[in-house]
TrEMBL record:
Cellular component annotations (GO), alphabetically ordered: plasma membrane
UniProt organism field: Pseudoalteromonas lipolytica
InterPro entries documented for this protein: Cyt_b561_bac/Ni-Hgenase, Cytochrome_b561_oxidase, Di-haem_cyt_TM
Family stated for the protein in its record: Belongs to the cytochrome b561 family.
Protein name (Swiss-Prot/TrEMBL): Cytochrome b
Pfam families (UniProt xref): Ni_hydr_CYTB (PF01292)
Keywords for the protein's UniProt record, in alphabetical order: Cell membrane, Electron transport, Heme, Iron, Membrane, Metal-binding, Transmembrane, Transmembrane helix, Transport
Molecular-function GO term, any one: electron transfer activity
GO process annotations (BP): respiratory electron transport chain
Keyword flag rRNA-binding: no
Compartment list: Cell membrane
Domain of life of the native organism: Bacteria
Amino acid sequence: MLKNSKSSYGWVAILLHWLMALGVFGLFGLGVYMVELTYYDTWYKGSLDLHKSVGITLAALLLFRFGWRLLGTQPDPVAGSSKAVNMAAHSVHKLIYLALIVIVTSGYLISTADGRAIDVFNLFAVPALPESVANQEDIAGKIHFYAAYGLIGVVVLHALGALKHHFIDKDKTLIRMIKPLKDD
């Protein structure tokens, strides 16, 4: 089952979810590591290039995910979930998407503040905007930093919610994000 149904996520949504999760945690870990490097560290440039390339890839996955979500079916909440729990889950998802948009946008603005394009894995380049604003790199850097930590906080809430559904509520919320389920 590639596409979502009313009761389950399909393989495309599941794969996007977990690829993005790996990307977010990998980029966050690399970002935390990178801020400790100095210009003279041997992996300074390599870590920046990798962070930018994976970040652009994550941005592309995010756009694809928005399209997939917009054009496809979304599973209904699992039976037995209260309206308050469903509203909280919906709010957390919106915060995750908002944080991702802010992070990829601010990352792009940091990387292109000097007018240079972003080279993506030496395969292609994402051009810079024709003009930048004063202190663009610093302003976007602060936004990027706080949005990244905010995202991790919201993702922890998201994961705790999934674990609550699985171990306390004993429903299929987590399972249906691991594998497609047959319609009930």
